[in-house]
Amino acid sequence: MLWRTGIVSTNDKDIVPPFSILPATQDGELVLRSSSLVNRGLDLSNKLVRARTQLLRAAGQGDADAQFKLGLMYINGQGVPQDFAEALKWFRKAAEERLANAQNFLGCMYWRGQGVPRDLLDGVKWFQKAAEQGHTSAQYTLGRAYAKGWGVPQDYAEAVKWTRKAAEQGYADAQNSLGVFYYNGQSVPQNYAEAAKWYRKAAEQWHEDAQYNLGFMYVRGQGVPKDYVQSYFWFSLAALRSFKCSGVRNLTAKRLTPEKLMEAQRMVREWEKSHPKE
Fold first, then answer.
1. Using 50, 70 and 90 to split pLDDT, how confident is the model at 43?
2. How many CB atoms lie within 10 A of CB 132?
3. What's the fold here for domain 10-190?
C-alpha cells in the first residue's frame, strides 16, 4: 500500500482541546503570556500580584470577566500557585453568569478531571451551554462528543450539526472533521467534492491533517481531478509540521517528472511566503 490508509479526522484524537490562552492585556490587568517573558528574564511578578488584587475586587462584585481571568491565573499558575480547585471555582462563577469562555473551560475541566472528579456528562452540559452561545471550540467539542458517544448517546446527526456550526465560523479542526463526515457519508450523503471543499478550508489554515487529506484526494481523484503535483504540494505542507507525512510526500515525488517536481516545490515555497505560520 503506497498511501497511508484512510482519511485522517481530528475526531481520532481522543483528547480535550488545549485551554486557550488569552492575549496579554495592559494597564495592570492580567498578563497571561507572562511565563514566556519571565523565561526571557523579565520579572512580572509584581504586575501579576497587582492584577490578582484588582481581579479579586472585581470578581467579588460579580464581574464574570474578572472571575474568568482569575480562573485562568489559577489554572496556569501565573502569579499564584497552580490550583485546579480554585480555577474551577472561579470558572464556575463566571459560567453561571453565562460567560461562554468560562462555560467551555468548565466543560474541559470536567472532561479532564481537573479540580473535580472526571465527568463526561457534566462536561457535555457546559459545552452545550457555550456552544449555544456560538463558542466555536465548544461547538466542535460537542460535535466530537456526539460522534464518539462521550457523555451523550452517539448521534452522528447531532455531531454533524455542531461540527458544521464551528466549521462555518472558520474553526479548522471542525472544517477537517466536517470533511471526514462527507467523505465517509456519516449522517450526510457521501460527497467527495464537499469533503475536498472543507479539507481545503482547513488546509489553508495550516491544518496538517486536512493538508494530508486534501493531498490524498488528489492522489485518488476524489472530488478533485487526479493531480500528483497538487498531492505533492499538500503533502509537503503537511510534512512541514508532521514528519509522518514526509514518507507519502516522497512517494508522490517519484510519480513526478523532474520538471513537475520543481514546479510543485516552487508552489510550496510561494505558499509558505504568502501564508505565514502563526
1. low
2. 16
3. 1.25.40
**Segment 105-113 mean pLDDT:** 96
pLDDT at 53: 86
- Name, in order, each residue with C-beta under 8 angstroms of 30's C-beta and a sequence gap of 6 or more: 22, 48, 51, 52, 55, 69, 72, 73, 78, 79
Distances (CA, A) of 124 to 12, 59, 100, 165, 204: 18, 26, 13, 16, 30
**CB neighbour class for 225 (10 Å; exposed up to 12, middle 13-18, buried from 19):** exposed
- The domains of the chain are located at 10-190, 204-278
Nine cell digits for residue 196: 475536498
Residue 161 CA to residue 158 CA, distance in Å, equals: 5
86, 74 in Cβ contact below 8 A?
yes
Q: What percent of the chain is predicted at pLDDT more than 90? A: 77
Placement of cell 466536517 in the chain: 178
- Rounded distance between C-alpha atoms, residue 262 and residue 248, angstroms: 17
At 21, the pLDDT band (50, 70, 90 cuts) reads very low
CA atoms of 127 and 238, how far apart (whole Å): 30
The number of CA neighbours under 13 Å toward the Cβ of 45 is 5
